């Protein structure tokens, strides 16, 4: 398992828990919401 895999898993768990996309973006440190939405979908 790579470190990147844990980041993706974290995002998936946050979305499954109904976290707002903006919150997930800030936690992951993405510069734009589009990056977050493209990575996790």
TrEMBL record:
Keyword set, alphabetical order: DNA recombination
UniProt superkingdom: Bacteria
InterPro entries documented for this protein: DNA_brk_join_enz, Integrase-like_cat_sf
Protein name: Integrase
């Amino acid at each position: 398992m790579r470190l990147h895999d844990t980041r993706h898993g974290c995002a998936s768990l946050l979305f499954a828990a109904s976290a707002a996309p903006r919150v997930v973006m800030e936690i992951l440190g993405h510069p734009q919401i589009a990056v977050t939405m493209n990575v996790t979908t």
